[in-house]
Design brief:
- The chain has 202 residues and is mainly alpha-helical.
- The protein contains 7 helices and 4 strands, in the order βααααβββααα.
- The strands form 2 sheets. Strands 1-4 form a two-stranded parallel ribbon. Strands 2-3 form a two-stranded antiparallel ribbon.
Length: 202
């Protein structure tokens, strides 16, 4: 059933292997990306966005609803029912004590990252067709910094805290988007290049 809760949806933590495996499907990820970016839409509208049939989208939307990722937005019937996200996005821990969860999380993360990198490759191939201001604003950088694990954790927390208000305000309410705003994908990858020595502490 549609939710009457007016609060913006929050991030959902994924830590159950069955749920992670259910989400690890290209069509389901594509539907979630589409609903997150463009808001509520029907199976037919979503299918036009991702290049799948309404029947396929309808099936996968029902599966996503079964696991609590989407819900009916209200109005419409059958495949004309609009669907919406139940959360702003997802977070998956990097460390899992349960081996089954670790395997499921790795499969999910690999699929998502491949889709993100494909969009990056598409941008590189097509950037000449974008307005100059967007080509100048886009960034492609790499930094090498010596840090401790605590410093890296703090850096990532500060980055998220800085971005979070814009994520919530502009994703959940289009009226908060300034004129000319378009979806922009920002990826941050932070990882150690070496295993720390034994005497460096945990």
């Amino acid at each position: 059933m549609p939710s009457d809760d007016p609060k913006p949806p929050e991030l959902r933590r994924l830590d159950d292997p069955r749920t992670l495996r259910a989400l690890t499907h290209p069509v389901r990820i594509a539907l979630i990306e589409t609903l997150s970016i463009y808001g509520p839409m029907t199976a037919t509208e979503a299918g036009e966005r991702i290049g799948e049939s309404p029947t396929t989208c309808s099936f996968h939307l029902r599966q996503l609803a079964k696991y609590g990722f989407v819900e009916e937005a209200g109005g419409g019937t059958g495949r004309r029912r609009p669907w919406k996200m139940t959360s702003l996005g997802f977070t998956v821990a990097n460390v899992h004590d349960d081996p089954a969860t670790a395997v499921a999380a790795a499969g999910f993360s690999r699929l998502v990252r491949e889709r993100q990198l494909q969009r990056y490759r598409s941008w590189r191939e097509q950037q000449s067709s974008f307005p100059r201001e967007w080509r100048e604003a886009a960034n492609d950088s790499e930094y090498l910094i010596y840090m401790t694990a605590d410093e890296l954790r703090e850096l990532n927390e500060r980055l998220f805290a800085m971005l979070a208000p814009h994520l919530r305000e502009r994703l959940t309410d289009p009226s908060n988007r300034p004129p000319g705003a378009v979806p922009v994908e920002l990826m941050t990858l932070s990882y150690p290049l070496e295993i720390p020595p034994d005497d460096a502490g945990s």
